[in-house]
Amino acid sequence: MTLALALRHLRHYGLASLIFVSVLVALAGCSNEKPVFTGSDISGTHLGRGLSLTGMDGKHYTDHSFEGKVTLVFFGFTQCPDVCPTTLAELAEVLKQLGDQANKVQMLMITVDPERDTPEVLTAYIKAFDDRILGLTGTPADIKQVAGLYKAYYAKVPQANGQYTMDHSASFYLFDKKGESRVLLQNNSGVAAIIKDLTTLLAE
């Protein structure tokens, strides 16, 4: 039996219209499905809007500079004793495992210690892990303003020797290709979780 003949038989019993409507409903349902992330879905929060900092390459960057790529942002500093180097090593592994897909991802480390983290210092530090990660810095006022855009916490902690260290939040912020904030991942989520959420956004 041909398809046309089969449909005529179905129309005779009123089933063709029912099937057609059912297919449309199913397709509509699929198109409205929200992606499932490992991290917290922060879609619609518009975090990071208004970013304006200097890259370790000396260039000026804004939140619009990375549109067209999926972006991962985190806060850190080069004299961090443990969390930051662990994080950078983990992100370098993520980029390695992404393969060619890594070309569609931009990772950003925003320093919370602009007094010491000049573009030159950031370059030397980050290149030891993966030079595809871009370090961003600015004046102390710039960093304060940008941290507020991400609702990120940081504070200078004096030490007994007259030096200081930094305390800061250590989450990953993931942005889609349009520059919209989409996912908040804890820094201990692991390589697999980061890759999963990045690839989910890459597929959009």
UniProtKB/TrEMBL annotation:
The keyword Secreted does not apply. Pfam families: SCO1-SenC. InterPro entries: SCO1/SenC, Thioredoxin-like_sf, Thioredoxin_domain. Gene3D superfamilies: Glutaredoxin. Keywords: Copper, Disulfide bond, Metal-binding. It comes from the Bacteria. Cu cation binds at residues 80, 84, 168. Disulfide bonds join 80-84. PANTHER family: ELECTRON TRANSPORT PROTIN SCO1/SENC FAMILY MEMBER (PTHR12151), LINALOOL DEHYDRATASE_ISOMERASE DOMAIN-CONTAINING PROTEIN (PTHR12151:SF25). Belongs to the SCO1/2 family. This is Protein SCO1/2. It comes from Jezberella montanilacus.
